[in-house]
Amino acid sequence: MLQETLVSPLGRSFIRDARAAQRPILSWSVDNEKGLDWCVRRELDGVVTDNPKKLLELRESSVKSGRPLVWSVRRIASLLRINMIIWVFNFIFGRKYGFGLDQRYTTKSH
Questions:
Q1: GO BP, one example (predicted)?
Q2: pLDDT tens digit string along 12-27?
């Protein structure tokens, strides 16, 4: 999943639900240090990055250091912008096609 969506409150509930269902959680397109650090702290199952060496370094140092993760104002604005776009498209497509899972897309268990 796009990391920006996982950082939001809905992303946190998604992570919680995915873990409860024993599903792997993968984040993609994470290349900045703060984003990589966030993925390490949340113990995601996989991270797609162009900087695997930095990810491994952070995995060793982040957990041990205990330092708080601080986002820049620019990063927070970017996260808000992407999540607002998601909310708008969710509203538009939800009104057109329905919110939640439709019965025709769910499987029946016997």
A1: lipid metabolic process
A2: 888 999 999 999 999 9
